[in-house]
Every structure is written in C-alpha cells, then in structure tokens.
C-alpha cells in the first residue's frame, strides 16, 4: 500500500491555511477517484472542557443556524451540490443515504426533530457549525493517540478498530480512516474507542473527508473553521 | 432508465459496449460506468423527492447497508438495478400526483365558472400542489339569504391557523372577566 507522504500543513505565501492531504490506498484511489482526506492539527486554546458548555459566541452561531435551517431547507438539502455529492458517494460505498444519513442530512434532521441545533459541548458544536457552514463533515481525534499520517484504506481481516484493549474487530474490507499502524475510524462512521478527544484534550487531529464533486476549498474551510474556533483564546 | 442508458454486462461473453474485456482494466471500466449510472439515478431520485415533497416520500431504503466498502461489479449491478426500480416507481408516483393536481386545477376552474353547481365543495390548496392551509370553498353569499336566492361564490380561506390558536382560545382562562379585578 502506497502512502504518499503528504505535504506538511503550512501557511502559504499569503498566510493561507493549507491542511495536510492524507494518503489513500491505491485500490481505494482507483475505485473512488475524488476521495481525499485532509487533516490539520488544532491546539485547543479555549478555556474549559471540550465536552462542557460552549462559549456564548458558538451558542449564538448555533442559534443563527437553527433559524436559517427550516423545514423547506431540510427537504431541499439533498439537492444542494455538496450534500448531494456525499449522497452519491454513500451509494458508491454501499451505504443507503436514506438509511444511514449523510452527516449534513443527519444534522438537519436532528434540527427538525429537536426544534433547533442543541449544544452538545464545545467540540461537538464546533464540528457541527463547520458542517452546516460548508456541508463537509469534520471529525476530531486525540492527536496524542495518532501515529503518523492519516489516510483511507480497506481494513484487513480480523483487524481491530483502534489500539485500545476494547477495540472491536472489523470485518475485512471495511473502509477506514487509519494512521500508520491502525484504523482509527470507520469511514463516515464512529471513532475508535480510546482515540476520541476527552474533556481535557488540548491537541486535536482534525480530519475532513472530501468526495468527488466537493470543491477542495470547502473541505479546507471546514477544517479552518474548526481550528479557528478552537484556537481562539 | 432507458435501455440505451444501461450498461450491458454479460460475463459469459466479456464484452462491454463493444470493447473486448476480460481484463482487470475492463472490469474497472465497467464499475466506473456503473458508478456513473448510480450517481445519475441518485440525483434523479433526489430531484423527484424534493420536488414532490410532501406528497412523495423518499420511500424505504432499497439497499441493506453493511458498512462502507469497495463494491464489486455484482454489487454495483444490484445497486444500479434497485435504484433504477426505485426511480421508476418514484416517476410513476410523481406522474400520478401531477395528474391529480391537474384534475384538481380543472375542478377549481369549473368551480370558478359555475359555483352554483358545486355547492359547499371544498378544495384544499395542497390538492393543487401549493403549500399552505388554504381551502377553496363554494359558499352562499350573505349566508342563508344567498342560499335561498342561489347566490354562490368561490372563496379562499385565510390560511393556516396560528400556532397559538385563535386569540380567544389563546387568552388564558385566568384572564379577568370584564369588571372583575385582576388576580394577584
């Protein structure tokens, strides 16, 4: 499996944020062109816990987004270019988006059921705001538990999800987000136990999954949004 | 999907659209083509559901999801066929709905022209494919007088009820009656 060394995350000439592109197993890249993983590190400079209450600016943003997303939007969202690209991609990897909702549709459905985007803690809120702003889902891992660069590959037979003792076994061929030595998340699924950020995690590895039809700018912006929101002192 | 849009894959005679295959590259091309068809079908499905809301739902999932994985040729074919079936079913429902709305529109036109023939007939605007709670209704002008005199007119009700109910029912029962002091 080739793991192309990614370009380091750096500021460009104009100080632009450039997330690091992750690697993709050759068979995955060949079958699913356009699939990319982008990663960025974030230092949490906000005070308080990652799972605790969000600061007022983020709660206000959630309120604004709740007002913007109404019933009509919930139905129309599947026709918007970025969410539609994720729906198509879900089909391509064997997920039915009407059964396993795409991240954007799941968020909008929750908004409809609960009457608003309810705060789920600082990190969850930051990731949700980025998703709603760009349509691109972002996940966060505890950076201390990540070894090497992240990428996408199929799981091996009897491989485990994560490195912890309670790591569940994965069926062979499952698409996963992995670092240099182990799968850390199922693609568009749950994170490996023991690798999720906890309340006092201060260094995060953020990653976004970009699929065919989604402009790179959107994925970069989703990561930038999260990093900027977390790094605000 | 029309037959011309479909990719014919016959494993016995490994030929795809006139190109001899049997190689890995050929199968890869077939999978790519199937994925393109799935994408087109998915977009069409979304368009029908979004345009037909709330009368046409997304329906039940066609594919038993097992988890994200790279699909083989056979799985992609099954997926394409299931989606094509679903799109066909959705198109039929959309067509039925369009015909229903057309009939409702014609009825409304007739109600406008000859209200006397459609006494007390009610036609919700949703039947016409419009949003809202309005109802077209043929009613007598001036109530009983109009009914006796045969003066019928078509009226559109004023729309959705308020979320809090009418002003009278929204007023709490604790509101003081006229002339009574307010409770403290």
Attribute tags:
heterodimer, A: alpha+beta, four-stranded mixed sheet, 7 helices, globular, disordered N terminus, B: 184 residues, two-stranded antiparallel ribbon
Strand residue percentage of chain B: 5-15%
Number of strands of chain A: 10
What pattern of helices and strands is seen along the backbone of chain B?
Answer: EEHHEEHEH
| Range of helix content of chain B | 40-55%
Number of helices of chain B: 4
Rounded mean pLDDT of chain B is 79
Q: What is the rounded distance between the termini of chain A?
A: 40 Å
Provide the gyration radius of chain B in Å.
29 Å
Major interchain interface with per-chain residue totals: A-B, 31 and 30 residues
Mean pLDDT of chain A comes to 90
Low-pLDDT runs of 5+ residues of chain B are 1-21, 173-184
Oligomer: heterodimer
Tally of DSSP helical segments of chain A = 7
The gross shape of chain A turns out to be: globular
Helix residue percentage of chain A: 25-40%
Strand line-up in the sheet with most strands of chain B: 3-4-5
Q: Main sheet of chain A: which strands, in order across?
A: 3-5-10-6
Low-confidence stretches of chain A: 1-8, 10-14
Q: Structural class of the secondary elements of chain B?
A: mainly alpha
- End-to-end separation of chain B in angstroms reads 71 Å
Describe this structure in words.
The complex is a heterodimer of chains A (233) and B (184). Chain A is 33% helix and 18% strand. Chain A is α+β, with helices and mostly antiparallel strands. In chain A, α6 (122-134) packs antiparallel against α7 (216-231). Chain B has a three-stranded antiparallel sheet. Residues 1-21 and 173-184 of chain B have low confidence and may be disordered. At the A-B interface, α1 and α4 of A face α1 and α2 of B.
